[in-house]
Write a structure and sequence with these properties.
Blueprint: H1 2-7, E1 9-10, E2 23-29, E3 41-48, E4 53-55, E5 60-65, E6 75-78, E7 82-83, E8 88-95, E9 108-109, E10 119-124, H2 135-139, E11 144-150, E12 170-173, H3 183-186, E13 187-190, H4 224-228, E14 240-252, E15 257-262, E16 275-281, E17 292-302, E18 311-323, E19 332-333, H5 363-369, E20 374-384, E21 391-395, E22 420-425, E23 439-451, E24 455-460, E25 465-467, E26 484-494, H6 500-513, E27 519-525, H7 540-552, E28 559-561, E29 579-584, E30 590-591, E31 605-608, E32 611-614, E33 619-620, E34 635-641, E35 644-652, H8 674-694, E36 699-705, H9 713-719, E37 725-726, E38 739-741, E39 744-746, E40 749-753, E41 760-764, E42 781-785
Parallel strand pairs: 1-4, 8-9, 16-18, 19-20, 22-24, 26-27, 35-36
Antiparallel strand pairs: 2-3, 2-12, 3-8, 4-7, 5-6, 5-10, 10-11, 12-13, 14-15, 14-17, 15-16, 17-18, 20-21, 20-23, 21-22, 23-24, 23-25, 26-42, 27-29, 28-29, 30-34, 31-32, 33-34, 34-35, 36-40, 37-40, 38-39, 41-42
Helix pairs in contact: 6-7, 8-9
Length: 791
């Protein structure tokens, strides 16, 4: 803010309805990177015709399509810094795939893909998105300082928009920056001529990252913190930088090969990272940790997925090694003091990429501000077990939402747990098979990276030592003679082609850990040839092997019931024809068979003088409803235990696939998959209501993998009218989980009971989700019901 100190800071004018003699939008160009364009990205330039500097802190430029629809929204790019008197201020926007010339170093950077021919730009006093979509409404918004409509824009100043914008032409004011609030009169089309606050134009100064003369052993003028900038996007994205200095802090020789460099001489801005990843593609890096290097390459933003944040990288690199064996820059400590309690900023569901980082407020901003830098943590508890990909999760906040067995509990959408961080060892052979509750003792150090799965992670060059805290599989008690034991277990795509080891381990879980329940609802039983898509829909061979394995493990000789799906209509692994299955012990409970149910014929409730029963058992709930499109249909069965009828409904709701991640660039993340699950929950709720309408004392157990949390709208919809009680909520909070994902212990599997089920004992049996070696990724659960005393 040196300009501000020299000239003073004054406030911006209140509205564009009064012509500005000070700060205006001086040039707009939306053709960057398009066919025929020379410049590689779009830009907006501001100009100051006044005699004092203007502070842009808290301001934004915003873009609206030229012909906005009802769903169109203003896209926001946050500003900062100031505009010198007579000076310019350059805002870089989205880059295209064409063009050959980079913009000069931008003063602010956004990611808005502007139209080359028609649109509206507004300079706004504030960072909240505008809502006006007509010229009159925008003229009445006092936050708008200046506005330019070009092409055929509906929103513009004066009699009409300025015309002539194209892939090769911008619209700009005269050098005087005169403003009469008439876009057609004040601006004209011409060759794009962006100028930044330093007076640089394309190809001038250091905008291309050059400098340092021709000596290949001397650094250029661009440093890593210049590349990283103060937002999630590099202000130099798309530009080539020359001889950027740094010390190599980590080398990756598999997968996305490359290495990290870090400048040991940091600037004073905590928002700008001093580290960056140098991507070498299929070429194995020849540098070593501790090398002092000068790296030239193109600044790129790599997106691991369509909804993830990006990783700032140098691509197509060339490097000069100046020396080896240098001391590494000190690592940034990750602990309860340094990592903020806020998780991530929000942008109304839009991208947060253009927001200025607040590393003292948000954990994800803190990590982004240290992207590519060496970080370290000590004596951290494992909260997500190691997997076959060499990944695990730890918490650097040991007191944050602990579970009873050492994990971190996910208990609401607003508390995603900021202390979680993924750990990936650069030496996969050294990655320990750690379980939840174990400890990585000592110090773990490495560059901070970002990936699709899990977000920010430590690429460990030094890994702490695993201390085994002895986590054991749970074994629940056996049901008493007058208790009906009903369990649910997602057996993770079990089919007859699986190894016997998988059958044996899952069988052990049923016979020993669950103590042989009377009824087991299984999810993810596949057809007999698994993923082979040849029309097979039966599961007889799969279930024969599974029940034989249970018997061999000391369990009963279970019988089974299921309804085979129509081929390729129930989602899951393609060709697998996933379905729910009832296992039951005929020596303890009987199944009431009522023929007629099939893949497309739904069952219903019938009230007779002898009581309530199903039209078909086993049966499905309204299987032709759109709620079950490409998804598993609930399986309903009628059982009798000690002379009492019990109705069991096994479910496997649609997955969370397609939801935006907690750590992604769109905030808050969209949970689009919830829509179908809520519709599915409504179908089951309606069915249970029909059962209770026929017999208010009907004993119903609704269970399975609902793929949603106990605090979700899915569960609220399922229980609407208080027809069901979710048993997970009867446990102490620190025990409410059945699944571990990204270091969050959470509940996806449920057992719910109707009001008549008043005497019960419920247990989640932890034997998979917390362990590196697991037979399934879900933990089973069981309820023991004293049926004859539930009256």
């Amino acid at each position: 803010m040196g300009v501000a100190g020299a000239f003073g800071i004054v406030s911006l004018p209140a509205a564009y309805a009064t012509p500005s003699a000070t700060v205006v939008i001086s040039e707009v160009y939306g053709g960057g990177g398009n066919s025929g364009a020379t410049l590689t990205r779009d830009f907006v330039e501001l100009g100051n015709a006044g005699s004092a500097a203007y502070d842009l802190s808290g301001y934004s430029v915003q873009y609206l399509p030229g012909s906005p629809s009802s769903s169109s929204q203003w896209q926001v790019t946050t500003l900062g810094g100031s505009v010198a008197p007579g000076g310019r201020f350059l805002v870089a926007e989205a880059a295209g795939s064409g063009g050959t010339t980079a913009l000069p170093t931008a003063d602010a950077t956004g990611s808005v893909a502007m139209s080359a021919t028609s649109g509206t730009l507004a300079l706004v006093s504030g960072t909240t998105a505008l809502t006006c979509k007509t010229a009159a409404d925008c003229a009445a918004d006092s936050r708008i300082v200046d506005l330019v409509g070009y092409g055929s824009a509906v929103v513009r100043e004066g009699s009409g928009p300025v015309t002539g914008a194209s892939n090769t032409a911008s619209v700009a004011r005269a050098a005087s920056l005169a403003d009469t609030d008439d876009n057609a009169a004040d601006l004209a089309a011409g060759t794009p001529s962006p100028v930044n606050s330093a007076g640089q134009t394309p190809g001038s100064g250091d905008g291309d990252g050059g400098g340092g003369g021709d000596d290949p052993t001397q650094p250029g003028t661009v440093r890593i913190h210049d590349i990283q900038g103060t937002t999630r996007l590099s202000p130099l994205a798309g530009q080539t930088v020359t001889r950027v200095p740094g010390i190599v802090t980590g080398v990756r020789t598999s997968g996305s090969k490359g290495y990290w460099i870090q400048d040991p001489t940091a600037d004073s801005d905590p928002r700008t990272s001093e580290g960056v990843f140098v991507y070498t593609g299929s070429v194995t890096p020849t540098v070593a940790v501790g090398d002092s290097v000068l790296v030239s390459g193109k600044v790129s933003e790599y997106y691991p997925s369509s909804t993830s944040q990006s990783v700032t990288e140098l691509t197509g690199p060339t490097a000069t090694v100046l020396s080896g064996g240098n001391a590494l820059p000190a690592a940034v400590t990750l602990d309860a003091t340094s990592v903020p309690s806020g998780y991530i900023p929000v942008a109304g569901g839009g991208s947060i990429e253009s927001l200025a980082l607040e590393p003292t407020v948000y954990a994800q901003d803190f990590y982004e501000a240290n992207e590519g830098m060496r970080v370290a943590f000590s004596d951290a508890r494992v909260v997500g077990a190691a997997n076959s990909y060499g990944e695990m999760w730890v918490t650097v906040k040991p007191d944050e939402s602990p579970t009873v067995r050492g994990g971190t509990l996910y208990s609401s959408y607003d508390q995603p747990n900021t202390g979680r961080i993924e750990v990936m060892s650069l030496d996969a052979a050294a990655h320990p098979a750690a379980d939840v509750g174990d400890e990585l003792s000592g110090t773990t150090t490495g560059p901070l990276d970002y990936s699709t799965y899990g977000g920010y992670n430590v690429q460990a060059t030094q890994l702490g030592t695993r201390v085994d805290h002895g986590l054991k599989q749970e074994v629940t008690r056996r049901q008493k003679g007058d208790e009906l034991a009903v369990a649910t277990y997602n057996v993770e795509n079990l089919d007859a082609l699986d190894d016997q080891t998988k059958f044996d381990r899952l069988a052990q879980g049923v016979a020993v850990n669950l103590s042989s329940p009377d009824i087991v609802a299984l999810e993810e039983i596949q057809d007999d040839n698994g993923a082979t898509d040849d029309g097979t829909v039966t599961s007889e061979a799969t279930l024969t092997r599974f029940t034989d394995a249970i018997r061999a493990a000391g369990g009963p000789r279970y019988q089974w019931r299921y309804i085979a799906p129509t081929n390729d209509q129930d989602g899951g692994e393609p060709g697998g024809n996933i379905r729910q299955v009832f296992l039951f012990n005929p020596k303890r409970v009987s199944f009431t068979d009522r023929a007629g149910g099939d893949a497309t014929t739904g069952t219903s409730v019938v009230k007779t003088r002898k009581g309530v029963h199903l039209t078909y058992s086993p049966g499905r709930i309204d299987p032709t409803s759109d709620a079950w499109s490409s998804s598993r249909k609930p399986l309903v069965g009628e059982f009798v235990f000690h002379g009492e009828s019990v109705f069991v409904i096994a479910n496997h709701f649609t997955s969370k696939g397609g939801d935006q991640p907690l750590h992604g660039r769109y905030q808050p993340p969209a949970r689009s998959s919830e829509t179908q699950r809520q519709t599915q929950a409504a179908e089951v709720n309606t069915f249970v209501k029909s059962l209770l309408a026929a017999d208010k004392n009907a004993k119903a157990v609704v269970l399975g993998d609902l793929n949603d949390y106990e605090f979700s709208q899915t569960v609220s919809t399922l229980t609407e009218g208080k027809v069901l009680t979710p048993l997970i909520t009867t446990l102490p909070a620190a025990e409410r989980y059945t699944y571990v994902y990204d270091g969050n212990s959470q509940t996806l599997d449920h057992i719910l009971t109707s009001p008549a089920v008043t005497r019960f004992d419920y247990d989640v049996v932890h034997l998979n989700a917390e362990f590196a070696d697991q037979a399934s990724d879900h933990d089973p659960q069981i309820v023991r019901i004293d049926v004859n005393r539930c009256r």
